[in-house]
Design brief:
This protein has five helices and no strands. It has about 170 residues and is an all-alpha fold. The two termini are about 40 Å apart.
């Protein structure tokens, strides 16, 4: 009897896209902070009763305010996409039978950790970690693969929203 194949690559892609949203939010937030610094660094305007031509400083401030508003809107939309996607992914992850599988997925994708960080977090208390680091890394990869397979299986068997994509 043939074993059914599940779309593991789709799950992996979705998890990577989730990570990319997190990186995008971080990058855009840093840009917003720099923009705010520019705005507050603009010299104070002297207010008088004398009529004057429009100031280039005023135009610059208007441009910065508009950029700030647009950037804040983009960040908020990305945060909402991330929240929605995390909710979906958590709903799938909670159905994984093994806590190690759940941990690998959460650490790698939700915490945006490197593979070595995943190994350290999961097996850092093992006295032989330094001598057998490659073995622990292979174990993490295996857990990751099993988790992806189980997630794909759960999604397909429960006809969970597969059409929703991040981005």
């Amino acid at each position: 009897m043939d074993e059914k194949h599940y779309d593991v690559e789709a799950v992996k892609t979705r998890l990577y896209e989730y990570r990319e949203i997190a990186k995008e939010i971080d990058t855009q937030s840093e840009r917003l902070e720099r923009l705010k610094s520019k705005m507050y660094g603009v010299g104070a305007q002297a207010i008088t009763d004398m009529p004057r031509a429009p100031s280039p400083v005023h135009d610059r401030i208007s441009d910065l305010v508009q950029q700030k508003d647009e950037l804040e809107k983009e960040i908020q939309e990305a945060i909402e996409r991330q929240r929605s996607e995390r909710e979906f992914l958590e709903g799938v992850i909670k159905h994984l039978r093994r806590s190690d599988e759940r941990a690998v997925i959460r650490i790698r994708y939700f915490d945006c950790a490197s593979w070595n960080d995943v190994v350290d977090l999961m097996f850092g208390d093992k006295p032989d970690l330094l001598e057998k680091e490659d073995g622990y890394l292979r174990r993490v990869y295996k857990l990751h693969g099993q988790a992806l397979y189980s997630m794909a299986k759960y999604i397909e068997e429960n006809d969970t929203d597969r059409s929703g994509t991040v981005g």
